Amino acid sequence: MYKLELRLTERKSFDWFTQRRRTRGLELAHDQITKAFDTVIWLHKATKSFSEKNQKEAKEYIENLYKTEECVDKLRVNVFKELSEGTALVADYREDLLHVVKRADTLADHTKDAARCLEMLSEADIPKELTDKTVLMTGKLVDITQMLRGCIEKVSANSQEAINDAKKVEEIERVIDIEYLKTKSLFVKYGVSMNRGAMVIFDDLIEFIEHAADNCADTADYIRVLSSRE
Q1: Between 20 and 30 A from 157 (CA), which of 41, 125, 126, 147?
Q2: Which residues contact 64 (CB under 8 A, 6 or more apart)?
Q3: Cα 220 vs. chain centroid, distance in angstroms?
């Protein structure tokens, strides 16, 4: 009976704070996760402009991504500080939130690394078929982060929907993985005509996109575990 009462108390604590976000730590965490997802949107815009050979616009989007990623880093530090000092959240849920914050930070790191590759390729002659693949992959990455955003928000409000969304995240990740392999296979087709240095950097570019998708799938797995507790 005591354990049941304790569990109900913990759940109420988590629900109350996630629904109202009235602690500074939770507000910062929400902002950090949101901005991490925003870096994916900027990356998709940049790859699209790059594919259309609009380098000026691509550079602007990349700069926006860098600025957003810097905010993600600063917010992560502040979140850790606030949550380590605060006592408003039950310890288990505080650790859960910190775990998601770490994952969001890693996601932003991967998109930043992909953007750096894109920036280095600004003067390179990349076949349209390859650049179109990056647009497809980053578009799917936007889809996966939007699904993951909803998944996180539903952890306590509707745990079954959160679990279902987590499964959809993994489905999209598999699509990205397939496109990643298809893109790699095109290196055989364009290996002779492409600059070797550009090919190495482009390979890094799609790998960082694939890492970002893997990160989202891992986060979805974690969210599924959290939802199963509810």
Answers
A1: 41
A2: 42
A3: 11
Q: What is the count of structural domains for the chain?
A: 1
Structure confidence at residue 24 (pLDDT): 73
Alpha carbon distance 52, 50 (integer Å): 5
pLDDT digits (tens, 9 = 90+) for 25-75: 778 888 999 999 999 999 999 999 999 999 999 999 999 999 999 999 999
The sign of the torsion formed by the CA atoms of 66, 70, 75, 80 equals: positive
Say if residues 194 and 186 touch (Cβ distance below 8 Å): no
Range of the domain at 206: 2-229
We report the CATH number of the domain holding residue 195 as 1.20.58.220
Instruction: Kindly report, residue by residue over 181-191, the tens digit of the pLDDT.
Output: 999 999 999 98
Residue 27 CB neighbours (<10 A): 16
Residue (of 83, 116, 106) closest to 37 by Cα position: 106
Residue 119, amino acid = E
Rounded to 5°, the CA angle 84-87-90 comes to 100
